[in-house]
Specification:
Chitobiase, domain 2; 4 domains; 842 residues; 26 strands; single chain; 8-stranded parallel beta barrel; alpha/beta
Length: 842
């Protein structure tokens, strides 16, 4: 291969000619300003996608077993050269051994709107720069999702913008079928297909797998749908056969496809009951291609019939489940799912959604019962885009936590739905409407992804290695914000980025991203005189702050449960709403302090610095708003349970403070972001922050009326309540050593060690299979010399599931605590233990 005169490449011909290596060398060429010698040495003993790099005296020696491993070392060299002004002589010595911790590290992008997404879909320069960046961050799978923006049978108004939704007729004609998309001629089909071919080729050229997501197979959404591009010539009679032929044509046209992702439950257009008949035809076409291909089935509603259908020669089957429903939470997997997700008896006539919404409802928003140790279909996770769609996110601690959780239960890895996902969803987009900013100096056009380059870096590098060295992201921050401002930028973003994931976990007003947008939420009332029709569909009753449950009600207490238990004198070990409020306030304060330092050290005339400052300021106000709402809701529930007028007065004052934070938020965003940001038509998918003020004011008015009514009734006084607002990270003198493994059918002795001076009066062991359809068992631990002991019985371990467990300890004086719980203030650790059997195949 020809290289620039600055690079001397010593490599075997097979490596010199490899397209992935050629691409990586081109990245070094672009960064180098003086000569450097590079030697590439193949060694099969190096882990796949791993490498050993040794740099000394302007010469780099890279040892790897595959082209992707070489590319990671070379792109790391390119990044170091850019930091050093392109001068190899300024790099110093560098030795590194690297290997991936997570097999599948995916980034997912959605085509959701014909007007807003067609520009980037057909822009070759966009793809070159975008794929360069994500490949350099060590993502090894790019997932282009088509048809994900509509949910058949669940969208109240059917579908309008069906462009590339049922993809085949928008790409080509299928021999033997007269199926076409009205309004899409042959030239447009060819242009679409050529764009898809280009994307696939460029993805593979950078060493990433190309995953094509065909999330929708509905050709007619019914109801009052008015499709912009009606699909003609198709019916129930030829639907499966045509789709199978479409898959065959796709694989012929695009040999770079390495796998497909399918939404196989009813929202993908195929009724639940009997779904295996349609999907068997699709899977058979894939098998008949003669290629080795991954088939990733979105796990929601998957039953045994589908698992049987996918087992065909040439197919590598995998299930992909949501993590924290359709949102981004803290970096661990729910200890338990909400009661709303529990399985239900089949309803009469539920042929469309009977499996997904009833018998296997518990598969909708987590790993369900798919993590069995004996499973022969693999599993992976996906982060949906409900929490942070718009605001800049960047916390290395949470990213590292997700890297460690990506293989939880022996899972294969992770797909991350990128920022701005679902922009213009469900026909809400308009020509030119992709731009989120009003101010010309902040606009990015088709390059809007560049605002989030730090986000991509943190996710990709920490999925590759959760222990990624800090200099990897710190040198990026130095280039982005200036060397003097880099540390302040890191701390501002880190603290601000912890606010919304924590709120997502503790305030589960809706699992669906259609209704719950934590960056710009539809207001939920505190007063019982109010009611939220918006949230009533998908939250516990009442639809108020008192009734809203956490996504993990084992670790966190709702407002209502916390106050009832506190008033009754029966506290539990769960993290309380007031502790959550304290964390939110501490993150907001730390972010504000760092932001002040960034303003002093950084270049505020720089557009990306301004975007960062604005988004961090917004998240600070969101954190303070949510914290004040939590505190107001607790005081309101104290009033409801005790009649304390002091409590209702405090609730009003705190709600007024919350409103003040929201007004500050509106002031920050005015004239910055568009007046109406659309991620869909539901109230929780679009809007502007100022539009929430009337609802906030309504709730505040009702709280004041309740206060005034209580005072007028002549009832006064306070409630004698001791609130729990914080706790030590580790209960002093308590420790536990997790057993290495257990034999199925044998009991597991579990010991909790207690030092002589520790105050622990009792301990309870809670345990459950890694099966979210099940609830926790618990047993009181017996005191022994130096601690407590209990057994998980052999009758329980005689099952093909690993086990999760934790402890609740109670002192002679004070309040119960969960062990291990969260062990640092980033909340990026797993708050329970897991243990696998000696028979675990994963």
């Amino acid at each position: 291969m020809a290289t620039d005169t600055l690079i001397t490449l010593d490599a075997a011909d097979a490596l010199r000619d490899d397209q992935v290596v050629q691409w990586a060398v081109s990245q070094v060429e672009a960064a180098a300003e003086e000569p450097i010698q590079i030697a590439l040495c193949a060694d099969a003993a190096i882990a796949k996608e791993g490498y050993r790099a040794e740099l000394a005296d302007g010469r780099l020696r890279v040892t790897a077993s595959d082209p992707t491993g070489f590319s990671y070392a070379l792109t790391e060299l390119a990044a170091r050269l850019r930091t050093a002004g392109g001068k190899a002589s300024a790099l110093g010595a560098w030795t590194e051994d690297a290997a991936p911790a997570v097999p599948v590290r995916g980034i997912q992008r959605a085509f959701a709107n014909v007007y807003e997404d067609s520009p980037w879909f057909h822009d070759r320069t966009f793809w070159t720069e975008y794929l360069d960046h994500v490949a350099a961050q060590r993502f090894n799978r790019f997932h282009l999702a088509l048809g994900m923006h509509y949910n058949y049978g669940a969208d109240r108004h059917g579908a309008t913008d069906n462009y590339l939704c049922f993809a085949y007729p928008f790409l080509f004609e299928v021999d033997g079928y007269s199926v076409r998309a009205e309004g899409v001629d042959a030239a447009e089909r060819d242009r679409n297909l050529e764009a898809l071919k280009f994307i696939a080729r460029e993805t593979r050229r950078r060493g990433m797998n190309f995953q094509l997501g065909l999330w929708n197979h509905a050709y007619d959404y019914g109801r009052d749908s008015k499709h912009l591009f009606p699909v003609l010539g198709i019916s129930a009679e030829n639907h499966a056969a045509y789709s199978a032929a479409g898959i065959t044509r796709l694989l012929e046209e695009i040999p770079e496809i390495t796998g497909f992702t399918f939404r196989v439950h009813y929202e993908g257009g195929i009724h639940d009951l009997g779904h295996e008949v349609f999907w068997d035809a699709i899977f058979q076409a894939i098998s008949d291609s003669g290629r080795e291909l991954e088939v990733d089935m979105h796990a929601k509603g998957v039953d045994q019939a589908l698992l049987d259908a996918v087992r065909k020669p040439g197919i590598d089957p995998v299930l992909s489940g949501k993590h924290w429903a359709e949102h981004m939470g803290l970096p661990y997997h729910q200890t338990t799912i909400r009661d709303l997700e529990a399985g239900r008896p089949m309803a009469e006539g539920a042929s469309v959604k009977g499996i997904t919404e009833f018998t296997r409802r518990f598969t909708r928003y987590g790993y369900g019962d798919f993590l069995g140790e004996d499973r022969d279909v693999d599993f992976m996770y996906r982060m949906w885009p409900g929490t942070q769609r718009l605001l800049l996110w960047g916390d290395p601690a949470i990213a590292a936590g997700y890297g460690r959780q990506a293989t939880f239960g022996g899972a294969r890895g992770y797909d991350y739905c990128e920022p701005l996902f679902f922009k213009g969803r469900k026909g809400s987009g308009v020509p030119g409407g992709r731009e989120t900013y009003v101010r010309d100096d902040l606009k990015l056009g088709v390059d809007d992804w560049k605002k989030y380059r730090y986000t991509y870096l943190l996710w990709g590098r920490h999925l590759y290695d959760p222990d990624t060295r800090p200099d990897v992201w710190q040198r990026f921050l130095a280039a982005e914000y200036g060397a003097e401002a880099a540390d302040a930028a890191e701390r501002a973003l880190s603290n601000a980025s912890r606010i919304l994931p924590l709120m997502t976990v503790t305030h589960a007003v809706a699992a669906s991203c259609n209704r719950n947008w934590m960056e710009n939420p539809v207001n939920l009332p505190i007063s019982a005189w109010g009611h939220s029709e918006h949230y009533a569909h998908d939250t516990a009753s009442p639809a108020t702050w008192s009734g809203a449950v956490p996504f993990d009600s084992t670790m966190f207490s709702s407002v209502g449960d916390y106050v009832r238990n506190t008033v009754a004198g029966t506290p539990d070990g769960k993290y309380t709403p007031l502790e959550v409020a304290s964390w939110l306030e501490s993150y907001a304060d730390a972010a504000a302090q760092a932001l002040a330092e960034l303003a002093d050290a950084g270049d505020l005339a720089d557009a990306q610095t301004q975007r960062t400052v604005i988004d961090v300021e917004m998240q600070i106000r969101l954190g303070r708003f949510y914290a004040a709402q939590y505190r107001a809701a607790v005081e309101y529930d104290v009033f409801s349970n005790t009649g304390s007028t002091d409590a209702i007065a405090d609730a009003v004052g705190l709600a007024e403070a919350a409103r003040g934070h929201w007004v500050e938020l509106v002031d920050i965003v005015e004239g910055v972001y568009q007046d109406h940001l659309y991620f869909g038509h539901e109230a929780g998918e679009h809007g502007h922050w100022r539009l929430q003020l009337p609802s906030i004011d309504d709730d505040l008015r009702m709280l004041r009326q309740e206060r005034d009514s209580a005072l007028a009734a002549g009832v006064t006084g306070s409630a004698d309540i001791v609130h729990r607002t914080s706790r030590d990270w580790q209960v002093a003198g308590v420790s536990h050593v997790r057993p290495a493994a257990y034999q199925r059918g044998s009991s597991i002795p579990i010991r909790l060690d207690i030092t002589a001076d520790a105050d622990v009066a009792s301990a309870v062991l809670h345990y459950r299979h890694l099966d979210q359809s099940k609830t926790y068992e618990n047993t009181t631990m017996h005191p022994i010399d130096g601690g407590f002991e209990a057994e998980i019985p052999g009758t329980y371990t005689d099952a093909p599931f690993s086990i999760a467990y934790f402890f609740v300890t109670t002192p002679t004086k004070g309040l119960p605590s969960i062990i291990p719980g969260f062990t640092d203030d980033t909340l990026s650790t797993q708050p329970y233990h897991t243990i696998a059997s000696t028979s675990d195949r994963h």
